[in-house]
Write a structure and sequence with these properties.
It is elongated, with a radius of gyration of 24 Å. The strands form 4 sheets. Strands 7, 8, 9, 10, 11, 14, 15, 16 and 18 form a 9-stranded mixed β-sheet that branches. It has 13 helices and 20 strands. The longest helix is centred in the first third of the chain and has 22 residues. With 486 residues, it is of the alpha/beta class. The structure holds ligand BES and zinc ion (2 copies). The site of ligand BES has 16 residues, from helix 10. Ligand BES binds next to helix 10.
Amino acid sequence: MTITIKKSNKVGKLDNVVFLSNDKMQGLNQLLEPKELDFVSKSFKSAGQRHFTINQYNRFIFIGIVKNDDENYKTVEKYRDYGWSVLKEINQHQLDSITLFDGIKDANKTIAFIEGLVLSNYQFLKYFTNGSDKQNSLKEIRVISNLVSEQQIEELKCTSEGVYHARDLVNEPVSFLDSVKLSEEIIKLGKESGFNVEVFNKKKIESLKMGGILAVNQGSPTPPTFSILEWKPQKPLNKKPLILVGKGVVYDTGGLSLKPTPNSMDMMKSDMGGAATVVGTLYAIAKAKIPQHVIGLIPSTDNRPGQNAYAPGDVITMYGGTSVEVLNTDAEGRMLLADALTYAQKYSPCLTINLATLTGSAVRAIGQRAIVGMGNSESNLNLLETSGYNVFERIAKMPFWDDYAQEMKSKIADLKNLGGPYAGQITAGKFLEHFTRDNDGKSVYPWIHLDIAGPAFIPSDDTYRTSGGTGYGVRLLVDFIKNLTQ
Ligand code: BES
Ligand code: ZN
Ligand code: ZN
């Protein structure tokens, strides 16, 4: 990450300053000329203006008087958004450092402001000939606050780096990031942050008979990979590991059931968004040395209509023996995830969470501002929902009634990979659920499925969620893992 964040205890005369204040405007007199102070308090009182940019010619002073909302999580999000709007000005004026003066005395909110600033500063410039010319100017944030701790700053850095890496992975096109390259990048990031990686190659995947992954891979010139990431601290607080499974489809053409218009295909380099979130999360928690045992499973391939591509009508034997009739090769994510969910059973995890850009139905249901969640563990889903509000990566809980599974029954095999025309996000979940159960239909582990198809990749900036890959889910999972008590 290009920004340095450190604590400081004094404001230099030429420092650019961001002043976070409350309605009482405490401390402002230390920095502003009486005339400026007068202007700020008059504008605040008469016009309700809350954001000020004062150009003192040798430095800038940004003042943010953020209003408390009716709920704390909304107020905290306003601080992130204010971080984004200040960053825009910082770049406009080409400032390379700022001193943040915390006048609000609420560490969470001050941290949220820094988070908004840092996440907004993300850029993906690799493919420009002169990318460095376009680089944002901000290099350093000095934080003056009695309440914000070094540890909070450190954790913020680790999480933001995790988000940056997840965004990078999503933004990389398949011409660079194929399934093999993805596993190599994972190894690199593991070395950098401290998690272990083992990669199964095609031979190993064949020997395990992971039929779902192999079927999707049939039309591809590149072999599949199955990456296992592990962060095991010395004294983990959880006895059984938490498992995170990420869909790693590095490109989804739909296969022989080719996607209908070219328009819906160009963003399909983002179909490994679930994998990117898992990698970003492992990176963040390993770097911050969070004392929880976490394992990531990432099955990866592209989905193409090559010569040997799997075809609608095929019956595939999955890892573990379930037979699946393929009715649409574009419903490939569930094929891969099924094998990984079965594989997860061998760890007897305290909980398995899978993340996937799985269905267009999820996007149609709730748009790009939130993700949909379902599973067999109400209590864990509730905890995730709370984390979702903490970090403003919200989860809409879906009904998950048993009879929705009927749509996934095949006339000639145990399951089919396509449900009816409605509620595709739920029937996809029901397909996955099958692989979290033993042969008698009993759940093997608590399990949550998160469909991140909506917000994983966005066409234009949504404040600090920059356009392209957003890394959605990293902050959610890191918050959840920090609070995990199993
Ligand atoms: N990767 C897509 C889902 C998707 C759609 C992700 C839009 C991001 C944005 C997935 O593999 C897919 O094609 N799903 C099909 C399933 C259908 C054939 C049952 C879909 O949702 O249309
Ligand atoms: Zn698809
Ligand atoms: Zn897909």
